[in-house]
Amino acid sequence: MAETPKTRSTRKEPAPAWVDGQQIIDVVEDSVDEHWEQREVTDVALSPLPAAEHQAPACGACGAETNCYEPYEYQCDDCVLTFSGSDLTPAYVVEDEKPCAKPCANSWHEPDKIKNGYRFDCFPCALPSSHTSMCWTGCTMREADRDR
Ligand SMILES: [Zn+2]
Ligand SMILES: [Zn+2]
Ligand SMILES: [Zn+2]
After folding, report:
1. Helix, strand or coil for residue 18?
2. 40 pLDDT more than 90
3. Residue 96: which region, alpha, beta or left (left: phi > 0; alpha: psi -120 to 50)?
4. Collapsed DSSP state (helix, strand, coil) of residue 92
5. Could you report the per-residue pLDDT of 21-31, keeping only the tens digit for each?
6. For 97-143, how does the pLDDT look when each residue is reduced to its tens digit (9 = 90+)?
7. CA-to-CA distance for 124 and 35, rounded, in angstroms?
8. Model confidence pTM above 0.70
9. What local confidence, expressed as pLDDT, does residue 35 receive?
10. CA 58 to ligand 3 centroid distance, Å
11. Which ligand places an atom closest to the C-alpha of 64?
12. What is the Å distance from ligand 3's center to 143 Cα?
């Protein structure tokens, strides 16, 4: 959508409504909200509240939502990692696959780049070589003058 929708009202607008891919640009002047009178609670029949639903955990490397596979194990297809259902311990999907091992190429990890007096300990990519996500290096920031 290249066009910025115009509205007739300067008052607080409801979230834009979309119907079949078309944004409804006319704001109804007299919304239900403003003229709604609270009735006695006993008058109304309410549907049951929706229960919260568990979401699959996010992949620790790329942050995308994992897929849940039987029996109760999570997997990131892009990073080719599994996470155990009980404690989310990560593992390669194919146990003996070689790591990607591409060196860290993040120029922000040079000394003093992000924060004066700090540097990064950089590592090669730890994901399996078949991963299609961004490389994950797990580089850690530390004070530059602190030796390990
Ligand atoms: Zn991932
Ligand atoms: Zn790095
Ligand atoms: Zn990689």
Report:
1. strand
2. no
3. alpha
4. strand
5. 555 555 555 55
6. 999 999 999 999 998 888 899 999 999 999 999 999 999 999 999 99
7. 62
8. no
9. 62
10. 18
11. 1
12. 26
